[in-house]
Design brief:
Blueprint (H helix, E strand, L loop, with lengths): L2 H41 L6 H26 L5 H33 L6 H26 L3 E8 L11 E5 L10 H11 L6 E4 L8 H8 L10 E4 L10 H10 L3 E2 L3 E7 L2 E7 L5 H4 L8 H4 L9 E4 L6 H6 L4 E4 L11 H4 L8 E5 L3 E5 L17 E8 L2
Helix pairs in contact: 1-2, 1-3, 2-3, 3-4
Length: about 400
């Protein structure tokens, strides 16, 4: 048998192992997420009565088994909202409990030093974990469901003309209209935006989880957003789980400018500003015809002396923005981590998690924590925001 034939046989074998490896990895992660809180609260030297141990184990095992089923039903091809709501909530609660079960070892060490012995020590730790988790889940839910606070940031752009000094760019991103009907929340967000005297309003993607027909009611208030110069929108990665082109078309119907690898030029007091947008970084692999991030197309025929603000969903699209001479990229995607300390994992994939940063000699990047939330209806130490970027000339 030739080397080429042997290689051809090995390649399919490797591909066939990938689903198995993925499944094993997911199972291991879930076992840790559920197992650590179960062990800490129910088993580890707590010496609860047998009935308590049995009941606690049944609860954890039952939720552990139900969770992947709910996530499949809720986020698979069926999109059953009741399952998504339940599964997402379980995910948020178990993440909080997992984190604080790990951190409970700090309290355990302090109790050891103080001379407190088991089972009292382990019971104190278990009670503290439950109490802290309960408080954070309730507080996180309130934080997630409220209309975001306004965050104001000044951004100095050296090439900005004097006539554009003070232009207000209001940023919405990651609204994630989804299984929880937040039509009233959406109307509240728009009402807040309309108090900000915006010149430009931007939405940098992840508008919804689902199709236009599924989330039309929640997105409808966006048609009432007011801006003097422009309302602009680009796709995020979640649009490519549903119908990206459908959302681009729908936003156009609502009166927004979909910046599908294109730009517009706005003018105030004789000075011009390029507002460009590119598709999300995942668009090329999503299989949607005509969709991919194309900075060259977005900036085609732009006057090189004009300042450029670029809408790009993911912060990691900044390298192409730097290479294209963009002055300011506006992004979302990270949610600021959404539920602490998840931002450490986000940072492995993205150059920034939130805030204003500089990249190269010219380009700045503003990363929003997001206006809404994805999945678990919780925000813990990662508040949502409606951002007012005031552009300043030198």
């Amino acid at each position: 048998m030739s080397a080429a034939s042997e290689a051809a046989q090995v390649a399919p074998a490797r591909r066939s192992l990938r689903p198995l490896l993925f499944g094993v990895t997911i199972a291991a992660v879930l076992a840790l997420l559920f197992g650590v809180p179960w062990w800490t609260l129910v088993v580890a030297d707590t010496r609860w009565p047998t009935a308590v141990v049995v009941a606690g184990t049944i609860v954890f095992v039952g939720v552990f088994v139900a969770f992947p089923v709910l996530m499949y039903l809720g986020h698979g091809s069926n999109h059953r909202d009741w399952a998504a709501r339940t599964g997402d909530t379980i995910l948020g609660v178990i993440w909080v409990m997992f984190v604080w079960a790990l951190l409970g070892n700090v309290l355990r060490l302090a109790l050891v030093i103080a001379g407190v012995v088991d089972p009292v020590r382990s019971r104190i730790v278990a009670a503290a974990i439950v109490a802290v988790s309960l408080v954070l889940v309730l507080w996180g839910y309130v934080e997630a469901m409220r209309v975001p606070r306004i965050k104001r940031v000044d951004v100095t752009i050296p090439r900005l003309g004097a006539g554009l000094d003070g232009v207000r760019v209001v940023l919405l991103t990651d609204t994630h209209y989804g299984p929880i009907n937040r039509a009233r929340w959406s109307a509240g967000v728009v009402a807040a935006v309309n108090t900000l005297d915006a010149d430009i309003v931007c939405h940098t993607g992840d508008i919804a989880d689902g199709t236009v027909s599924q989330r039309r009611e929640q997105a409808a208030p966006l048609g009432d957003v007011r801006a003097r110069l422009a309302r602009t929108y680009v796709t995020g990665n979640h649009e490519y789980f549903g119908e990206a082109q459908g959302w681009l078309d729908h936003m156009r119907q609502l009166g927004w400018e979909p910046l599908h690898n294109r730009h517009i030029v706005v003018e105030r007091d004789g000075c011009q500003l390029v507002v460009a947008g590119v598709d999300d970084a995942t668009a090329a692999s999503a299989g949607t015809p005509g969709h991919h991030a194309d900075h060259a197309a977005a900036l085609a025929d732009v006057d090189p002396d004009l300042p450029v603000v670029l809408l790009a969903h993911q912060p990691k699209q900044i390298d192409a923005a730097v290479a294209s001479g963009v002055d300011l990229q506006i992004s979302g995607h990270t949610h600021g981590g959404q539920i602490w300390p998840f931002h450490f994992l986000v940072r492995l994939d993205q150059p920034t998690v939130h805030g204003l940063s500089r990249h190269g000699d010219r380009t700045q990047l503003y990363t929003s924590r997001g206006t809404g939330f994805w999945g678990p209806p919780l925000r813990v130490f990662a508040p949502s925001e409606i951002t007012v970027l005031t552009l300043r000339a030198v």
